[in-house]
Design brief:
5-stranded mixed beta sheet; Aminopeptidase; globular
């Protein structure tokens, strides 16, 4: 897993040469995750979850609040209470937490 600052995304290079990734944008002490891509033939293998966990661990280390604009991130964060404290207030309410 790498954080590609130039591209603004977290990337995971897969064995077959494809890349799964999650885009991010930094804004005023927050990190926005607008889009996540896992190649279709790799879906259901936990790749998106691995990217989400690594990027959320990074957000915690950086002291950032998280805006899960991507539905995958919103669902992942709702299912993983260990990351609830990272949610910005608006999204915490939207997710019913």
């Amino acid at each position: 897993m790498i954080r590609n600052e130039a591209a603004g995304r977290f990337e995971l290079r897969l064995d077959d040469g494809h890349v799964a990734f999650a885009d991010y944008r930094l804004r005023d002490g927050k990190v926005l995750f607008p889009h996540t891509v896992v190649p279709p033939h790799h879906e259901g293998q936990g790749i998106g979850s691995a990217i989400a966990k690594a990027s959320l661990d990074w957000a915690r280390d950086e002291g950032l609040q998280v805006v899960p604009a991507c539905s995958f991130y919103a669902t992942y964060m709702k299912r993983h209470p260990e990351f609830h404290d990272l949610l910005d207030a608006d999204h915490r309410e939207r997710l019913g937490l």
